[in-house]
Amino acid sequence: MNPVRVRSTVRGVGSALPERIVTNAEMETIVDTTDEWIVQRTGIRQRHVAAEGETTSMLATRAAEAALADAGLVAADIDLFIVATSTPDYTFPAVATQVQAALGVTHGVAFDLQAVCSGFVFAVATADKFLVSGSHKRALVIGAETFSRLLDWTDRTTCVLFGDGAGAIVLEATPSDGALTSPGVISTQLRSDGRHRAKLYVDGGPSTTKTVGHLKMEGREVFKHAVGMVTDVIKACFDDAGVTAADIDWFVPHQANRRIIDASADKLGLPREKVVVTVDRHGNTSAASIPLALAVSVKDGRIKKGDLVMIEAMGGGFTWGAALIRW
Known about the structure:
This protein has helices at residues 24-30, 35-42, 56-71, 95-102, 119-133, 219-241, 258-268, 279-282, 289-299; strands spanning 6-16, 21-23, 46-48, 80-84, 109-113, 138-146, 164-175, 184-192, 200-202, 215-217, 250-253, 308-315, 319-326. 31% of the residues lie in helices and 25% in strands. It has 2 domains: 6-175, Thiolase/Chalcone synthase (Peroxisomal Thiolase, Chain A, domain 1); 184-326, 3-Layer(aba) Sandwich (Peroxisomal Thiolase, Chain A, domain 1).
C-alpha cells in the first residue's frame, strides 16, 4: 500500500431516532407473528418508527447536527454533504440539499447516493475520494431512512424487519504519512451485481407504477448470498491494507439480521465480543444502520481513538461493500 498525503479522518459521529418504539409485542397485534419467532430468526426485539410528518430529511438533519457538535464544528465548516437513502422525502430534490439548507449552508455540494443498505459504505468511499483528491475539505456523510413508509404492514415476512433512523459522521481531509497506525479511511471495496434485483426490491417507482410501492424480499435467497459477498469485500480490504482479522478492534456490520452478522464474523474468524450489534434495538434501518451502530459504540466508549474499525454492508441490487477505518 503506497503512502498517501491525505486521509479522510473521522471528526465526529451523531444519530437521530424517532421517539416511537414498536416492540415485537406490538407487532403481534399487527400481523400473525410472535416475539419468539422474530427474535429467533432475526435478533430484532424492537424498532423505531417515524411519526406522521417526520421525514427522512428531518432525521438526517438531526443526526448531522449531533455529528457536528461531536466534532466541535459548525455547519459552515462543511463543503460536502452526502446522504445515503432509499427513502427520500421527494423524488427530487435530494435529501442532502434539504439538510444543507436546514443547516444554513449555501456553499459546497450536496447530493444523495442510492445503494440501499450498502449506501453508507458507498457514501464513505465516495466522500473519501473527494477529500483525498483535494477538491473538498470536510464532509457530512449521512445514512437516513424511513423504511416504515415502504412496508406492507400486512406482510409478516418483511414488516417486522425494518425501522427508521439516521446516523452521520464528519470526515475531514487530514495530512497523513499513510501508515497503518495513522487515523483515517485506509481501504474501501465496493461491488454490485444487478442480476439479483428480484430478490430484494420495491415494486414501485416514478418510471414504472408512478407509485412508491412496497418492499419485496426473498429472505432465504438474500441470506444465502449475504455471508459470502460481505466476507469477500472484507478480505479484499484486509489484503489491500496488509492486515488480518486479528488486527481488527471492532467489526461494525450492517444491522440486518443477527444470524447473518454472526455467520459473517465466524467465517472471518472475528470474536463475537469484537462485533457491534444494534439490530436488537433498531431493526434493519438500511443505510442508517452502520452510522447508528457507530454512534452507539462511540458513545458507550467501545470505539476509541486509534482503534481499527471494519464496516460492511450488503443491500438490494445487489450492492455490497466494506471500509477499513483507523479511528
